[in-house]
Structure formats: C-alpha cells, structure tokens
Amino acid sequence: xxxxxxxxxxxxxxxxxxxxxxxxxxxxxxxxxxxxxxxxxxxxxxxxxxxxxxxxxxxxxxxxxxxxxxxxxxxxxxxxxxxxxxxxxxxxxxxxxxxxxxxxxxxxxxxxxxxxxxxxxxxxxxxxxxxxxxxxxxxxxxxxxxxxxxxxxxxxxxxxxxxxxxxxxxxxxxxxxxxxxxxxxxxxxxxxxxxxxxxxxxxxxxxxxxxxxxxxxxxxxxxxxxxxxxxxxxxxxxxxxxxxxxxxxxxxxxxxxxxxxxxxxxxxxxxxxxxxxxxxxxxxxxxxxxxxxxxxxxxxxxxxxxxxxxxxxxxxxxxxxxxxxxxxxxxxxxxxxxxxxxxxxxxxxxxxxxxxxxxxxxxxxxxxxxxxxxxxxxxxxxxxxxxxxxxxxxxxxxxxxxxxxxxxxxxxxxxxxxxxxxxxxxxxxxxxxxxxxxxxxxxxxxxxxxxxxxxx
Length: 456
Ligand SMILES: *Cc1c(COP(=O)(O)O)cnc(C)c1O
Description:
Keywords: Pyridoxal phosphate. Helix content is 30%, strand content 22%. It is α/β, with parallel strands linked by helices. The strands form two sheets. Strands 1, 11, 12, 13, 14, 15, 16, 17 and 18 form a nine-stranded mixed β-sheet that branches. Strands 2-3-4-5-6-8-9-10 form an eight-stranded parallel beta barrel, surrounded by seven helices. Helix 2 packs parallel to helix 9. The N and C termini lie far apart (73 Å).
C-alpha cells in the first residue's frame, strides 16, 4: 500500500477488464496475437500526482516545467495526452523533437538534452526558442557561435555530472565517475571551468543534471540534486547576481516492478528533496523535471497469445508472441529487468489453478528469447494469453526488429460503465509492406548492379 492507501487494485482491475475487452472486441486473437495496452486513466493519475507533489513543496508562483522524457514512450498520442495534463517534453534527438512538435508541444514546453547534437539541431532549437542544455565544452563553443549570430529566446544551460556514483544497473547509472553525460564536475579543473563558463556568458541561465534512472536509490538522486544546487549557488555568488534562474533536476525516479503499488511516489521524492535541499524550493529558482519511466511504466501492458504450449526437459514452455522485439532489456539482461507476468485464458479472463513452474518464451529464433524463465504461474495453454506488466516505458514502444517481427498495435483504454473497456488506436500494427519498405524493399537490385571497376 502506498501513502494514499493505494494498493494498485484499481490499476489491476482496469487492466483485467481491458484484456478481456481486447479479446472480445477482436483487438487480440489468432490473427493479431500481440498488442500493447495503455491505461489512460493511470497515465492521467500519474501526471496529476507529479504536478501535485512539486506544487506541495515549491513556493507559490515558482515556475515549474515537468518535461516528460520522450525516450521513455515515444508515441505522439501519449505526448498529447500528457500535454493536456500540463506536462511538457524532454527530447534528445531530432526524431523525439519531431514527435513533440507533432503532439503540439510548444517550444516553451520543450527541453533539448541530447549528448550528440549536430550544428543543424542546435541551430533549429535556438531558432525555435527551445531550451538547450549543453553537454560539453565543444557543444558550448557551437552555441557561442549561434548566440553571436542570431537572437534566440532559448533558455540555455550546461549539463553537469555530479559524479555521485551509480546504482544497481550500470546501463542506467548516469552519474558514475566516467559517465558519458555532461561535464564531470569532480574532474580536475572542471568545476572552475563551469563557473568561468557562466561568468563569461551572461546568457547562461540554467543548470542541469540527471543523475540516474532505474536502480538508483533515492538518497543518491537527492545527493545529485543537492550538489547541482550547491554549484548554482556558488556560480550566482561568484557572479554577484542570480544569473542561474532555473535548475533542471532531470528524471530517473525508479519504478517498482514487483507489484501494482507505485513506490517510491513523486510526493516522497519531492519531500525528500525539500528536506535535503530546502533552498531549491524557496522561490529563487524555477524548476524543470524530466521524468520518463515513472510516468508511464506502470500504465502499459503487453498481451500476447500463447501459440503453443510444450514441454522440454521436464519444463513447461509457453511459446508466445512477446519476446525480445518488445522486451529487449528483459530478454538480454533478465537479472536487471525482471517483469511480472500474468496468465489469462482464451477469453481474456484471469487464469486460476495451481501454479506450475514454466518458461514464457517469445517468438524469436534464439534460445534466450524468454520473457520469464522458471516462473510459477497457472499453466499456460495453447490459446491462452500471457501479459507482461509495467511495460508502458522502454518496452513495446521500443521495438527491436529481430526476425523482422512486426511492431504490434498499441491501444489506449478507459473503463466503460459495464465492466469492459473502450479503446483508441495509439499506433497501428505494422504491415508486412512496411517491413519490406523499411528493409530496403525499394532498392532490391541495388547490390547486384554495383560492381568494382574491372570486375566484370
Ligand atoms: C533518460 C533521461 C531522462 C528520463 O529518465 P527516466 O529514468 O525515464 O525517468 C531524463 N533526462 C535525461 C537527460 C535522460 O537522458
């Protein structure tokens, strides 16, 4: 149970109703054996919780932009829904910026953070007035040139890495000593370089850090923000005026993948920040946040049909249509990214019965393509459905084209009044024609007509 007395029960009920309704309405079936489902009610609730958590700890009138990290769920209708809930966008590539713009997000609601921005990307961002955080001294040089050549409304800042350390998952630990992101603050001379950069550039008004994602303890995230705040204070003191007016604290709140309960909550994090860094909330600084996984993960479900149920070496194996193409991290690094699996029968009703240790396998042609290995579940049978929970971020929206498996359709749902669900298409299932086109179909003869001089 979380602090609001929320056991996640509403969430589980909505999910069960949506799975059954998806089968009844034919979104799921023998000919469409895998879908991604998004709980619109849950997404709206998380957005509201985020806004309320920071409203509670900030001084009245503090400008706060919650910019959703688009990479977590890069789907235009999701960005539009979040926009309606007062959430902006943090983008880190030309593609993500295009998605944010397609969703109708304004430059003032958008922050650009990519580690490898080209000159053209920087020029476009500054022309649009989008906030940019420079990752390194060379990027700041490029921005210098652009600022000299044209007026821009873009709020500009520098990303720092407070080097407070990593968490339990190396790949999502962004504040280790050697992380590739930002200016490594504890390196020799780096802090002084950052202070100088602001002294020399009166237009640098923001400071940014994103000190980790899944696997980082709250205390370490808080420490990263505290060190970023201390640096902003030092810079403003040295300059003698509050030149840094906004601190971007990044995202990274971890997600509980073990049950339907949200833990930690945004409220817990916001209060921990206020206790550790009270000055950040006294009204002298505007705030930007960049949460991704914590806004969407718990609102997504992959549902896949069990095509075959078999047995190998005494182990029951359910061969489903969900594997590495939709759960890439889980399949390749199962120890770090375990997913809960629930079993549904052929009509989409929760399956009961004695639990049997079984493998839930995907459709890809390599032995390790398992959503779950040795998991105790009611025995999955041919025509049943297996659901992978908490997959709303960094899963089905992150298709991996192994075996040319088609991207599944994604549907948002809300409960209807009759114990079922209403659906809206978020993304159509990929067609075979699209797979061929994306695989060079228009260039079928390209390689046979290419000859080295004199070879023929
Ligand atoms: C990935 C990323 C985020 C979001 O991280 P989550 O763990 O999904 O909250 C925020 N900011 C930056 C700069 C990122 O790279």
